[in-house]
Amino acid sequence: MADLRYTEEGRIKVIRGCIVLVEGFKSCINGQVIKFGYGTKGIILGFSEDEAQVLIIRQQEELKTGDKAIATMEPFETPVGENFIGRIVNPLGETMDGLGPLKHDAMYPIFIQAPSILDRKELSKTLETGIKVVDCMIPVGFGQRELILGDKMTGKTTICTDTIINQKNTGVLCIYCGIGKSHSALGKVVQLFLDHDCFKYTMIVAALASGPPGQQYLAPYVACSIAEYFLYKGKNVFIAFDDFTKHAWSYREISLLLGRAPGRDSYPGDIFYLHSKMIERACYLEDAKGGGSITFFPIVETLEGDLTGYVQSNLVSMTDGQIYLSAPLFGEGQKPAVDLGLSVSRVGSKVQWKAIKKLAGPLRLEFLQYREVMRVSKLKTSGQSEEMQAQLKGGEILTDILKQDKDSPARAEAQVIILYAYTKKYLHELTLEEVKDFQNKIFDYVNKRHPDTMVKLREKRDYDDEMAKVFDIVIKEYIEEVKKVRPIEEDDEVEGGSANVGVDTLDKATTKKK
Ligand SMILES: Nc1ncnc2c1ncn2[C@@H]1O[C@H](COP(=O)(O)OP(=O)(O)OP(=O)(O)O)[C@@H](O)[C@H]1O
Ligand SMILES: [Mg+2]
Hints:
By secondary structure, the protein is α/β, with parallel strands linked by helices. The protein is built from 16 helices and 19 strands. Bound molecules: adenosine-5'-triphosphate and magnesium ion.
């Protein structure tokens, strides 16, 4: 027997860009799908007394006033399923990767309530990003919402893609949600994922800048719904939204076309509600509910480092911390350009590896003090105390530790050993070049000699005295080896004494005179 379907017919009254006003519907609801002609689709965003406001999300043909519009009382739903892993889809669930159509397992509504507080539990696991500065100083837990903000070209996308690369073999599924990206920018991300074999556990939901604003508005909701399918199967999911500024722009465009009253910066008043409702969908569920999690990295762009912009400050207040990327630091070559003074993780430190917490605790202050000393020493070139010199040397090494190339995540075990070597001042014996080498090689070096210690470290996420002894011995061994192969610096002494050369000559001359 055929399905009974309730349909209603209306007529297009006004067309305003991506917004169509339709009259004639008697009983329609928000978020409901409206169909026009041959495959053009829209969803209802609001009503006035005698019109429904419809946002076009798929345009197949030119619409005209007077055209028929059909309402089916179906809410907008997105296809979801296992087959989405490794695929690139648009917010309508249509594939964009040329690999043919996708078979879905279920349909999920996209505008749904976030899980209630009773279904959630406290964060208890760390999401290892593999980015040293983040894992050590601004740790992120499963289920956390960590905002990434910074000016143009400061490495925001790279933080997310590096995190995705580091999820290989961890069981974490990743979704990269591109909103308002250009074709080439998305292409770069796709190529990066292909190069690092990320598509085994990653999917992309993309609404291109050239597409209708309606799709850009829907993209994050669709990404959330796809993630929720996996969440209720007990999986951990990571979503990077790149970026929310474009989402806010598309919503502003839509709202202005709808004739809603503009507020600050012409954004509609409900943009805060819109974002906070979506951000709430990140969660860490109780074991009874499957124990899965969704972690969010929403990206937002700042203008000239202004954190007080409307959308930016809204998002700062909704998330559990922010990673602020500074353009001046990026310019100096400090990459990732995380500004430790303005970045914070409000919940992640609870779930950080104990070993890293212990070692990295004092480093933030040390780094900020070093930056301050650097600033002062730029003005004052002579007469630095020994203490200051030691601080400068330590700071230099620390700066180097916090630098990291893109697409080269560091294992948490390696981070522990590096921090241990730094804290115990072993690294102070090496040159900066050797410190770089140390960071790249030390994990394999220790793992070869004491694989059981490394396994124990990952299990316990902490080290005891016995393990510390192993670290001491192996690090010392490594440093001895490095020292052995060091080229002999003949003019070492001259260099070392150079500061006093002038003074000595002067001294000799004056004593002679006397
Ligand atoms: N840690 C790093 N080491 C070296 N290069 C980096 C690092 N992080 C980012 N970059 C480089 O800096 C450039 C900008 O990075 P990215 O695209 O991530 O910035 P963005 O803030 O997302 O830019 P946009 O504002 O255009 O979205 C890229 O060419 C990237 O390769
Ligand atoms: Mg980017």
